[in-house]
Amino acid sequence: MSPNFKLQCHFVLIFLTALRGESRYLELREAADYEPFLLFSANLKRELAGEQPYRRALRCLDMLSLQGQFTFTADRPQLHCAAFFISEPEEFITIHYDLVSIDCQGGDFLKVFDGWILKGEKFPSSQDHPLPTAERYIDLCESGLSRRSIRSSQNVAMIFFRVHEPGNGFTLTIKTDPNLFPCNVISQTPNGKFTLVVPHQHRNCSFSIIYPVVIKISDLTLGHLNGLQLKKSSAGCEGIGDFVELLGGTGLDPSKMMPLADLCYPFHGPAQMKVGCDNTVVRMVSSGKHINRVTFEYRQLEPYELENPNGNSIGEFCLSGL
What we know:
The structure is a single chain. By secondary structure, the chain is mainly beta. It has helices at residues 3-19, 140-143, 303-307, and strands spanning 55-57, 61-64, 68-73, 78-86, 91-101, 109-113, 116-118, 121-123, 137-139, 149-151, 156-163, 169-178, 185-186, 192-199, 204-209, 213-221, 228-230, 243-249, 258-263, 267-275, 279-285, 291-300, 313-314. The protein folds into two domains: 42-178, Spermadhesin, CUB domain (Jelly Rolls), CATH 2.60.120.290; 190-224 and 239-318, Jelly Rolls (Sandwich). The chain has a six-stranded mixed sheet with strand order 13-15-21-18-19-17, with no helix packed on it. It has a five-stranded mixed sheet with strand order 1-3-12-5-10, with no helix packed on it. β7 (116-118) and β8 form a beta hairpin. The protein is elongated, with a radius of gyration of 20 Å. Its main location: secreted. Belongs to the CRF-binding protein family. InterPro entries: CRF-bd (IPR008435), CRF-BP_C (IPR056178), CRF-BP_N (IPR056177), Sperma_CUB_dom_sf (IPR035914).
């Protein structure tokens, strides 16, 4: 089973679990009818260079990690639907409407959200995204097809839709474009290496890994000594203006996660930490005065490492609640 497939199935399991509770954004009553491992075929990413564009039907609850053309056709009233899109970290996602046949006056809708929402939590968080939350929604019934193409601000996006009349639906094409300085990222894989660079920009960037992981920071360059400070005091690094923090939690929104450690000063590692959380985030806060860079590696923790933590590990804040 590929790492991407594992990520998708893992996230769908969390997604379906979250849907059993209250949610401001989604109440997918049909969710219990899905077997999460049936949402993805084994040859999901079979598209190769030179082949025809990948095409398949879009489900009421779906997740996609590839480019292609996708068509949703209602076979009965589908009132609470969503599709999640994810690309490589260094890519934007473009959603293009090829054909839309829905009844907006009759209560249908089709909305794009710039990011992901899960159980009322957003990624990127409101603190990290360049747009206000209201502007991250693009409602086709309000804007019409004057905006046929919508590009995300990061490597994840999603759509919400409702279609009452059987036979109605829509076709859209998913494409990706290079992102030279990726800021907010959800990793497709439980293992990897990444360098987050913020060049003279006043912005916050979060890299999310939806797994318990051991993370090793090998290099940190900030525009202003050398140290790793666990957040045990109220001082922390926030007064410096440029820093990296390590967050852990069970939700999606970095602003609602537990601060675990701060990196306040230029650092040449390695500094390693085990984080037994469902979601681990490396977040860089930048004042815009400097070129900031952090390089880190991560790998999923083995079951025995979760059961027997030792060394530099943080697990007590992150007992799984999902």
